[in-house]
Queue: 4 jobs
Job 1
Amino acid sequence: MEWAKRVRDAYLAIGDEYERTRSRPLPVADLGRFGERALDIGSGRGAQPLYLEHEHKYVVHCDLHRRLTPGGDSVECEATMLPFRDGAFDVAYLIAVIHHMPHYAASSALREAKRVARIAVATVWAPGAWKGREVAPGVWEVPWGDRATRLYFAYDLRDLLAVAGVQAISAGVIKRGKQYNYFVIF
């Protein structure tokens, strides 16, 4: 789980500064009515948790460290080993999380999301061109100034559907600002 430690440490190093750059959520709850009980996996502390709390009556946020969660109903956990009972939520969101995981871990995280929720929604960043350094095929190190290096795994929509491992309800491209993201609902 070296990838998870690298991701956690990078976001702990840039936490406050990074979250200030995330003032607009990706409007994933607008894709459908998923229910009142939501799990926000890899929540961070930017605009996304507040948006999900506005859209759902009950939201639990989880991330790799308590300092990475928005507080409130939050749990420190890793996406491939969720500490919740089967079917505890109506929907589980993995917004901008999967692209920080190698494919085998993403597949496990999505299985876990589907285990604890009736519906799962996942997005991955779809940059036109990667900035940073490719350290292995499809694996990128993207610096945040001199404070941290973020780890990204390149996914296209076909990859995202493959790691979901089940028939999707919907899949496609969603835009936030100038950035594109692939999404899957299953």
Job 2
Amino acid sequence: MQPALPLAGLNILVVDDDEDSRFYITTVLETDGASVMAVTSATVALKILPELQPDVLICDIAMPDEDGYTFIRKIRALKPDIWGKLPAIALTAYGDSEYRSLSLEAGFQTHVAKPVDPGELVAIVANLMLNMKVADLNPPLSDSCLIYE
């Protein structure tokens, strides 16, 4: 019996204006079981997002017309109850801590510098999904649930 592929069953949207990057990311993710839709711009991604219903978003930051920061803010504002929880990875050539902070503040869960090792990319996606599932199972306590003595 073959072991399950780590990304089996995941539907991933990749947004990157660079053809080589799209090909690389798609190949890596599909090899590990994911279904990938790769598009060239934030504009195209916004059009297909409702129909595609991705489990994960991987987005470049430096793109013409609209950068990844603006794109993720638009997604988070669409329907916060749905798109506010979409796991999102900024995969970018801008790897220093300033850009990492900007990515997280904009709404990405994680920031990964290009080039990324194939195994590392798969692990990042798998761990992000695992962390999101754990967070869903353990919602934060509201004040009404706290017991004061």
Job 3
Amino acid sequence: MATDDHPRLAKYVTARRLQLGLAVKRAAELAGVANDTWKRIESGGKVRRINIAKVDAVLGWASGSAIGVLEGREPILSREAKEAPGVDISRRPVADIDRAVRDVIQLATIATASGLTADEIRELSDRAVRDLKAAGLI
């Protein structure tokens, strides 16, 4: 696992909060974290992941985005569904879906098949992703 990049998270959180026109105190209140905790996030300090996860909804990010930023990924914006108040909709990047499908197939193959090389397992998972895309499933 890569090292958590707290300064990177601080830049993203600060920029998004300012874009939304939120004061630190209000953002912390909406997230349900202490003012000092929000300030620590924005200063690049270490904060428990449970508190980092609370910033997603305040910033209009899909669940898990702040942790993703901490790990080097980009945040995913979400919006409230018109037809279902209280339900957020977000678009996952295609690369995330492809990677998740490949990982699941590779792990299942490793667990159930014997005698396949790493290259054969990768080719199997790549083919499954291509077939799923062709079928319109991903």
Job 4
Amino acid sequence: MDGRADDAVTIGRWRGVRIDVAPRDAVSAEVAVAIAGVFSYEIGRNKPGGGLGNLDTALGGAITRLRADGIFRAEPGEVLTLSAPARPIQATTVLAIGLGNPAAWTPGVMRQAVATAARETIRLDAESAAFAPSLLDSGLDPDSLSGTPEAMLAGLFDALPDDRHPARPGTLSRWLFCVGAARFEAVAEVFRDSFDRLAVR
């Protein structure tokens, strides 16, 4: 299952991986591994909203329950793996990637999170993955998110094997960044511009 939905836009290819952007979330993305960023708490709300809220609901509240119990603290770089989730989740594996304290968030935190997610996806030998940052879902101010697309792409580039360390046959070939439907075309263009800048370095 390569997960290419009709609403996905390809922004480039890097080291054998097609990179797409789509107005989807971790529930609806048709990929092998669905990934969501998770903070240690939400700003101004009791639980996550949007796509992250949908994912948590589809998992029977597992993410927020395990976080509340201290089993998954959502510290930066911490990974929670949930296998064989039930429908409506399309993926066969869900990863929650810790983003830490939302008040201390920077694009650098997102770069680390995407790199961690990509390395874990490669370790799982999955062919496709989708990453939902969950920033707005967690209450962050949209005006504070400048530089996020470039940071996410940089994190992916950090993790993808190069010619000196090639991926095994049949491994990751498609990566999807999930973004909101609002202003999707403009956001996709920012991703394209960011890809073009990073790809020439």
